[in-house]
Design a protein that fits this description.
FSCA_dom_sf; 3 helices; alpha+beta; three-stranded mixed beta sheet; FeS assembly SUF system protein; MIP18-like
Length: 105
């Protein structure tokens, strides 16, 4: 059965929600660190993400973990993770759920 790009995008988001920022007990998706997930017809994916700060202690390992976990999905051919600081991450990017979790609401 062929999987479409939208279904694959949903699967990727589910995987992203299993990856946590080591300093904040909230997954990177709810934290707002994922800016975009692109999936093309060849099932190659590109994830545009940011970090809470440019000198984040997991700057080396977190993008790698994202890439490896997304690549582990059987329908994904390849995954590229691009880190950007434009726009810079702010707490406004966090989901209501994340803010609630961290006692910010």
């Amino acid at each position: 059965m062929e999987i479409n790009t939208e279904e694959l995008g949903d699967k990727i988001v589910r995987v992203l929600k299993t990856i946590y920022d080591p300093e904040i007990p909230v997954d990177i998706y709810e934290l707002g660190l994922i800016y975009d997930v692109f999936v093309n017809e060849d099932m190659d994916t590109k994830i545009l993400m940011t970090l809470t700060t440019p000198n984040c202690p997991v700057a080396e390992t977190l993008p790698l973990e994202v890439e490896e976990k997304v690549k582990s999905l059987k329908d994904v051919k390849d995954c590229e993770v691009e880190i950007t600081f434009d726009p810079p991450w702010t707490q406004d990017l966090m989901s209501e759920e994340a803010k609630l979790e961290l006692g910010m609401l």
